[in-house]
Specification:
Largest sheet: 4 strands, antiparallel
Distance between the termini: 36 Å
Strand content: 25-35%
Oligomer: single chain
Structural class: alpha+beta
Shape: globular
Order of helices and strands: HEEEEEEHEEHHHHEHHEEH
Helix content: 40-55%
Number of strands: 11
Length: 206
């Protein structure tokens, strides 16, 4: 598995635990560590001094943070905040680049991962879909990242922010998905009970 290959590098790194809402990486900071998420979720945004930050994506188990800056040598182009208690493995950018230089397979994995990030539902603009469809797409994406049918630790307000709706509107969409048997929700745990139904709703315009 790709996760196991990253482990060969990051398992020798330092373990860092972030509390909910704690900043993990600052936009504009230089290089520094590359992080690999072990547990929890990281919210990636583009902050704006005069308004709400622009949502970019949520990264979770096995995914990297700070790798773009390490590769480009440029300041970080986004801010990363812990959605819930989030544990990472951290290594210095120089070590990360050195390890990449030793393995074509790791380079290929990194390029593939970055392509997936660019094409992910959360990066493609969920707000152009209906709320039920957008939420279905998001939950399928997050469950794929988590490697389980349970999406744990993401508050309603964060999912609402991702979709660009109010928490009340999100609650209505969640209730609809529960009514259709796709989900069972006990915040902050979302259990996908029927993948087929959720995938069907993800393709709808509702």
């Amino acid at each position: 598995m790709d996760i196991d290959r990253w482990s060969s590098i990051f398992d020798r790194g330092r373990i860092i635990s972030y509390r909910r809402d704690q900043t993990m990486l600052l936009k504009g900071s230089l290089k520094g560590n590359v992080l690999r998420v072990v547990e929890g979720w990281a919210l990636v945004t583009d902050p704006h001094p005069d308004g709400e930050p622009t949502f970019l994506e949520i990264r979770g188990r096995g995914q990297l943070l700070g790798e773009t800056s390490a590769l480009s040598g440029q300041p970080r182009n986004a801010e990363v905040t812990a959605v819930c208690r989030t544990v990472v493995q951290a290594i210095g950018y120089e070590r990360f680049l050195t390890e990449l230089g030793r393995s074509d397979a790791l380079v290929g994995m990194l390029l593939h991962a970055q392509q997936l990030h660019m094409r992910a539902n959360v990066r493609a603009g969920l707000r152009r879909f209906g709320v039920v469809s957008g939420l279905s797409r998001l939950l399928l994406d997050l469950a794929h990242t988590a490697g389980t049918s349970h999406v744990v630790g993401i508050p309603q307000k964060v999912l609402a922010q991702v979709l660009g709706v109010t928490p009340r509107t999100l609650s209505g969409a969640v209730a609809e998905l529960e009514r259709r048997g796709a989900l069972s929700v006990h915040w902050p745990v979302v259990h996908i009970t029927d993948d087929a139904v959720l995938e069907q709703l993800a393709r709808s315009n509702t």
